[in-house]
Design brief:
Layout lengths: L11 H11 L11 E2 L2 H10 L7 E5 L5 H9 L2 E6 L2 H14 L7 E5 L15 E5 L5 H11 L5 E7 H8 L9 H9 E9 L4 E2 L6 E8 L10 H13 L5 H4 L1 H4 L2 H10 L13 H9 L2 H4 L10
Parallel strand pairs: 2-3, 2-5, 3-4, 5-6
Antiparallel strand pairs: 1-8, 6-9, 7-9
Length: about 300
């Protein structure tokens, strides 16, 4: 692979000039905060352990700061961008600043939540600066849709990073923690200061690393069935599982029976359970244990 030029990455002046030429005003609606520091994007690529043989998918590339840093290292980069102006401009930015790598770049102009396939080889890594307002659903959608993604590194709001990486028993352990853990081993991978963004956000950011499970959670329940238990357990997180799962099970007594069958205390709360325990509860669901009665014949 040929080496990129030393000034290929975007600095603060480059970002503002690009934005001015394109008439781009970062919007809160889409959570747009552009990274303006070349050292930060290179750090993200290093922390993500991007390799020369990786096919990386990036969500929300914006003006291309992280995209260019990824192209320095990865074999291929596919960026998913919803914004019309940014999507139209990014290929030209790549071609101008890293022409020798332009044929290794692809753009998908779409909402990441609607993407079900990507051009070229299957992605092996996901690296993204995710908009704060959609970070968790986008992350879970990409992990679910593209099982070839082995390693993920996302930059998200620090509070979201804490939730994603929280262990059972933590005050911030919840739905994002359990669902992310269904797919991967999750850990905090660093903090990012506000001054590397334009405009500077009002919140701190954090890096979260996710390594795909080599062996899926062993369960006869489907992902949908397990996630339904998780959603019900945390919808009323202050309640015991016997009470919180009563709607899911059909009654408090049925919830208690499922919990006992799963080896989980009916007095426990969702925040204390591992993803494996949620899977056992899903396996013990009343609806799964009963065989539907045959339809009655019309006389």
């Amino acid at each position: 692979m040929s080496s990129p030029t030393p000034d290929a990455l975007l600095g603060p002046a480059d970002i503002r000039e690009l934005a001015e030429v394109l008439g781009v005003r970062p919007t809160k609606q889409r959570g747009q905060n552009f990274v303006i520091d070349a050292n930060t994007v290179r750090r993200i690529v290093r922390t993500a352990q991007v390799r020369p043989d990786d096919v990386v998918v990036e969500v929300g590339p914006g003006l291309g700061s992280l995209t260019l840093a990824l192209l320095e290292v990865a074999d291929r980069v596919t960026a998913v961008e919803i914004d019309d102006v940014l999507a139209a401009a990014l290929p030209a930015t790549v071609a101008a600043r890293m022409p020798q790598r332009a044929d290794r770049f692809a753009l998908v102009h779409s909402d990441a939540m609607r993407v079900t396939e990507l051009p070229g080889p299957a992605p092996t890594a996901l690296v993204a600066n995710l908009p704060y307002n959609v970070a968790v659903p986008v992350l879970l959608h990409m992990l679910d849709t593209f099982p070839s993604i082995e390693r993920t590194l996302v930059m998200v709001q620090a509070e979201v990073a804490d939730r994603l990486a929280a262990p059972p028993g933590s005050k911030v352990y919840g739905v994002p923690s359990v669902k992310a853990n269904w797919f991967a081993e999750v850990k905090r991978a660093g903090a990012i200061g506000r001054n590397v963004f334009w405009p500077a956000p009002n919140v701190d950011s954090g890096l979260v690393s996710l390594t795909r499970r080599t062996e899926p959670i062993r369960t006869t329940a489907s992902q949908g069935e397990v996630f339904a238990v998780v959603d019900a357990a945390f919808a009323q997180r202050r309640k015991t599982l016997r009470a919180a799962l009563s709607g899911w099970a059909g009654s408090a007594a049925a919830a208690e029976a499922a919990l006992v069958a799963a080896g989980v205390s009916p007095q426990a709360r969702g925040e204390s359970l591992t993803v494996e325990e949620f899977a056992r509860i899903a396996e013990a669901a009343p609806a799964r244990a009963t065989t539907p009665a045959p339809p009655k014949e019309n006389k």
